[in-house]
Amino acid sequence: MQKVLGSNSAVMKRRNRSLILNMIKSEGKISRAELSKRTGLSRGGMTPIINELLKLGLIIETGVSVTGSGRRPINLELNASGCHAIAVDWTRKKFTVAVVDFLGSIIAEKDYNFIENDTLDHIIKVLKDVIKEFLNKFKFNRIAGIGIVAPGPLDINKGIILSPPNFWGWKNIPIKQILEETFNIPVILDNNANAYAIAEKNYGREKKYRNFIYAVVDEGIGAGIIMDNRIYRGKGGFGSEIGHISIDMNGPKCECGNHGCIEVYATIPQIMRYINSFAELGIPSSYLTEIRSRRLIEWDDIIKGLQMEDPVCLNIIRKEAEYLANVFVTLINVLEPEAIFIGSTIAKAGSALLDNLEELISDKTVTKDIHETKLYLSDLSQASLIGGAMLVIQNFIDQGNFEDLVKAESGWQSDEIHYRF
Ligand SMILES: [Zn+2]
Q: How far apart are alpha carbons 162 and 346 in whole angstroms?
């Protein structure tokens, strides 16, 4: 009986630590009085937890804020150096490893560009070497783990990169197991759309949204979906595949087995295929005709053409907006998000894309007379790295399991986590 009570109390303690840390993180800075009001915890109940978090260096007290009654409570904020994460952004061309602090700032970064005939064994060895270098360099910092962002399909639960297309033939890479066995710290794998959504939720301009979709259009089409402030993953982590929403049941067969998926029509490589054939067909654009006489038209040429108001570039982005609007209307009707963010390569099309989308969506949703779903182009740079780091930092906060840290009264000692190189 005693044991059960003790266990419940420990669980409650961890939950309350997480609750308080999460609230401080989402608010940026918050007074004790406001924290008590927002969490429902009494001031007296919060005090030992706050003292513990201060002692561990996870939070700091800053400034004063004058209230109507004249009281001047000290605010609580996350301590930027209180916790760090290693982030890995593994793309088809390179990987980037970064060290990210508790506030989402990148404090160190290193790239490795893949070369012809690189083997997977060699890539993994270089990746381990870079991580090892950073862990040594930041050995006096608390490291929450390694967050890896890679192209899908992924088995997020087991941490395996399955079989991404155009991925040098590499597949079924148990990256979580490989890195956990090497470094003995938590490793979390996720796809870039989820990482972008998590970065936008934590550090974007519009942190206030609790329900939004982050749509990614580049070599593929995907999304990260935030529902009630949390990423939505579905049962096995394979949800959010908006690229496989069909916009024509009689359309071409997609590799998923369905017909007319938007990914068959509206990826960046598809746009490039259209525009290169349009130019060959002689649609009037002296700008594109001149480029096409020398080489294939590239995505950056379209972006430049939009700035010059080239008619063919404007038309192709209008067509892209029509495809995307079709899917966004469905998403708005099914999920009723507060906002949709559009990121990755397609976001460079800027207002030419956004204006068309707003026009095409505005009168087609069930909620059109009730409230508007805002559309934004995402301007977060390095969202993959920040989102990747946030995977493990959020996990660290949510666990609330700082018993070992509390025991080490003098603060964090890197020796305690026993890296195995
Ligand atoms: Zn499909």
A: 25
